[in-house]
Task: inverse folding
């Protein structure tokens, strides 16, 4: 095809895509047409200009280029592109967009097979793309490129700058951002308006190449993609001047049109402005080379083994476990936010340095990268202090809608960390991770159960949170004991049990100490290790509720959303009273044992609670 | 004092401060001496070089300069400064640092009167400082300066870059950052090591002045502070090359010494290296000019008034309320993250533009700024979509330890937002805000109760979350109805009630519709508006548990940590069964009513649940 024919065809495709955008949003009665129109040429040029390589019949092809709409609200454009590629009918696009049950949701989710990851909370796409580019360069060693479309408004978020920093650090010249500078945010102008140089100077300072172009001219767009794919040791951002609402005179560059669909009357006025629409035109996307990553054969992991007489911190057991099971799960990758010598991910790093990535202190970026890796088939284990996962709650929350195979490991949970004080104490982490759709929450009490649960987490397809403890704790289990998602262990049980004490992690040891003291006085309690907090072992809890007079939960966490409320929820229809011991006083610095006692979650507090029941 | 005498005194003070740092951490057996030693000259020069103005007997003085340790782990240095200023005895510092009950916690909290805000989760201090600088320049109109000490590691976080962007945007030349570039993070070198120019080019690109200095030479440090206070229209960052562990040969620039106290033997080896310690030397801090902000006299707010027949979205009522009550609470400030036309903060902005600050899409920064304003006596209302507060969970979590007078208003809660899909739905926000120590969580069901609860939030000293709804809902209450923190309303009640349905916000209307339908069939239910989810109205819930066979909670939120578990917790010792209706299926796009039904939280679902009990 001659250059002129090519430009003519791209122009036709852009007109068709604009028609789809306007028609679909008007039919839906909502959506973001103007934010889609600004990026129409940018995306048409990318997908149909010969740059993007993708097997449209096999979205799972490992060497497909990747495209992430970080500005997820431009979903009309995203779906319109795939309609223009012939993979979605006009009927389906226009009639089902934003409708209940359609894969074409208001913001892209993985219900639609061409969505790489769900977006819609701004500032997250570049980190996800970074994960995919990291995968290409360092893990799968494939030549695919990762493209991320960003809006100018989302550059106010800190999270893209975390990704920008790290992408330069890892020299990801296979990562290409396209910044759609349409000047207008939701409620007015952005901080920098149409000042492209403001973005250029920031991006250059952070080590990126930048290409400044007119985002509506294919003559500017096509050479930019050509140049961006050059692979010169740096990530590249194409910074494009665009017009919000481009193509429709009464929308162009006008405030007040964000997130608004046209009425039918407005649509009728707008469509003629697009010029003739050729509904038969279809864009071609060339297929990628059929390269696939080398995948090592899984080998059986060595068995777990800890001497029974030597306490081990569960965070150390996590590090040991990850290194131990890697041969069996060679898709494991470990990411850590500059605390690997605290989370003990460093044990894995020492054993498999090429499978470990330091992300520095940038938890949001870590989660985005992890999601990108997970979507490319890896099993990422992300570790930091339990408290600091709160930094990435939005990214964690968003990952729910991408069917995430992500494993979060939070160390330094609870007041039992001691002297460092409340800023370092994970006290809301159970609430945060329990609240996620389909999540698994694990909190082992010793090294053996930690090892087995890390293995269970690796095997489970989905989002898993594992909480570890700073201090060393005694070994409770032998190598033959089994631990699984949804399980529990009854550590003490008799026909004389007056109450059941349910602990996990560090409080399990307090419960065991309480049992020890109480049985010397002839008082017997049942002790349950509820290491799987979500899902939990309903049958065992129900039996305890039937067979003992009261349940007492003990947790090193605030009362809301943690172990206690998990048990209450499970037993909501059971009349047995449940008493919850949890962190109820404002935490402070001190020795672990002082703090456990101060908060009423120590053996002493349990004993007093049990005696109060007699 | 001659310049030479001044330098000699500062050198003496620095030696004393180093002694305090080493002795206190060794006595505590933990802490971060090396991260403190790197910034010793920087902070000694600031506090005792004549730049910092502070009434040391009145930390609350409104014209005091402000100093925030964003690198909170340098707390030994922070406390040592105040000891060197004569406000803390050597005995108290060395004997109580990190001990249970001491105000000298492992990371600074407001238990210590000179702490401006608790820190210890990195990357947050600059936003807090920004809030204080914003207050000085735009609200209190006072000449005080705000200083923030940052570590180089924390520059990997996105959050400082949010603050850096916005500080330049608001031309805060009264904000001065001091970047302690000691090269080493917790587990090794930072991304840029000792490359000061890497920081300079990034900061300059973002619109800051930078001054590059040797952070251990008072000859460089003092002129830098002189220059930084110049007020030339831009915020200033002093970028200082420092040595981690400076002053002790076996610690200097060595990896592996992060967060480690010296043993007594190591301390004995280290102390002689500091040279002679003059324990009698004290630093002088000049007092500020006695300027105080003009404070308008509070005037009574106008009464609430809504026509009973016209539905109003509670988000609109929030905007109305804020504008209505401002005369009574003239310390109110409104911040919004670029969605004021959705949260309806724009109503307040239109009425009081000088009390509104656009923070653009940067929720973490918004919370930090809010905290800075709150610590300077304002009542900040921060608004964005309920879902997007998850972006700032770490900042919100950290604010707990600063006695925060912060009001969070999250709009677009739950699946009832409809077509935009799950990325925009607040479904974990109740869990997140409930889990905070001492928090208040409110979720009004109509415009009148929203207005009254916004007023209650403004009056309450503490952290309040108010959840609002996107769609319009009918007016349920009259202007005479009272609503308070910890209250509830029983909307329907009879002696024949078979069950109690507890809703809030949008589900309250579903409960009312269920009542309507059921009573036509002769089935009566009690309906409770649980608008105060934390704390909650225990007496009313207990009465319902006694007087009806079962309780049914209905919430537009995931089951974990929300309204249902709040009720379960409150009634943990009550045998009455509680059934919880909540968002249990993966949410998607669709019409609000379709989604409420799909999730089993509609009137139909309630009716079916009630009939199942019969």
Result:
């Amino acid at each position: 095809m001659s250059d002129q024919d090519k430009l003519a065809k791209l122009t036709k495709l852009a007109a068709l895509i604009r028609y789809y955008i306007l028609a679909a949003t008007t039919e839906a009665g909502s959506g973001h047409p103007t934010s889609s129109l600004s990026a129409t040429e940018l995306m048409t040029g990318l997908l149909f200009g010969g740059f993007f390589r993708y097997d449209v019949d096999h979205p799972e092809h490992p060497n497909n280029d990747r495209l992430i709409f970080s500005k997820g609200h431009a979903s009309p454009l995203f779906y319109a592109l795939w309609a223009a590629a012939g993979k979605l009918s006009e009927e389906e696009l226009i009639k089902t967009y934003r409708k209940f049950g359609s894969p074409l949701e208001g913001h892209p989710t993985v219900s639609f097979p061409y969505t790489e990851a769900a977006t819609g909370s701004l500032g997250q796409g570049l980190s996800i793309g970074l994960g995919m580019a990291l995968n290409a360069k360092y893990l799968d060693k494939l030549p695919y490129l990762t493209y991320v479309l960003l809006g100018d408004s989302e550059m106010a978020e800190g999270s893209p700058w975390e990704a920008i920093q790290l992408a330069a650090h890892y020299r990801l010249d296979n990562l290409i951002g396209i910044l759609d500078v349409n000047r207008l945010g939701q409620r007015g102008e952005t901080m920098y308006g149409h000042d492209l140089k403001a973005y250029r100077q920031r991006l250059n300072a952070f080590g990126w190449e930048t290409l400044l172009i007119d985002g509506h001219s294919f003559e500017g767009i096509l050479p930019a993609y050509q140049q961006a794919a050059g692979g010169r040791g740096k990530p590249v951002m194409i910074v494009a001047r665009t017009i919000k609402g481009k193509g429709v005179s009464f929308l162009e560059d006008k405030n007040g049109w964000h997130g608004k669909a046209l009425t039918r009357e407005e649509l009728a006025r707008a469509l003629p402005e697009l010029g003739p629409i050729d509904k038969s035109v279809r864009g071609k996307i060339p297929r990628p080379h059929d390269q696939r990553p080398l995948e090592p054969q899984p080998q059986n992991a060595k068995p777990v083994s800890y001497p029974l007489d030597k306490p081990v911190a569960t965070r150390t057991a996590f590090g040991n476990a990850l290194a131990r099971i890697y041969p069996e799960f060679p898709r494991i990758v470990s990411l850590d936010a500059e605390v690997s010598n605290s989370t003990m991910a460093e044990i894995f790093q020492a054993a498999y340095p090429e499978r470990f990535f330091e992300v520095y202190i940038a938890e949001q970026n870590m989660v985005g990268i992890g999601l990108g890796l997970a979507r490319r088939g890896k099993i990422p284990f992300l570790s930091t202090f339990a408290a600091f996962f709160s930094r990435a709650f939005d990214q964690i929350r968003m990952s729910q809608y991408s069917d995430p195979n992500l494993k979060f490991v939070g160390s330094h949970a609870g007041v039992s960390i001691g002297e460092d004080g409340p800023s370092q104490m994970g006290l809301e982490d159970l609430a945060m991770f329990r609240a996620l759709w389909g999540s698994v929450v694990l909190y082992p009490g010793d090294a053996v159960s930690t090892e087995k649960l890390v293995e269970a987490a690796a095997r489970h397809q989905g989002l898993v949170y594992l909480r570890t403890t700073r201090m060393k704790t005694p070994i409770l289990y032998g190598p033959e004991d089994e631990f699984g998602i949804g399980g529990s262990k009854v550590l003490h049980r008799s026909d004389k049990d007056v109450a059941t004490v349910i602990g996990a992690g560090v409080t399990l040891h307090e419960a065991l100490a309480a049992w020890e003291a109480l049985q010397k006085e002839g008082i017997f309690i049942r002790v349950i290790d509820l290491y799987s907090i979500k899902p939990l072992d309903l049958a065992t809890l129900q039996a305890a509720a039937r067979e003992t007079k009261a349940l007492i939960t003990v947790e090193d966490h605030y009362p809301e959303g943690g172990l206690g409320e998990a048990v209450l929820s499970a037993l909501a229809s059971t009349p047995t009273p449940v008493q919850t011991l949890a962190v109820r006083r404002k935490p402070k610095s001190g020795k672990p044992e002082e703090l456990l006692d101060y908060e009423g979650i120590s053996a002493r507090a349990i004993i007093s609670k049990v005696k109060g029941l007699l």
Observations:
- The first strand of chain A starts at residue 66 and ends at 69.
- The radius of gyration of chain A is 27 Å.
- Chain A has a mean pLDDT of 97.
- Chain A touches chain B through 111 residues (CB under 8 Å).
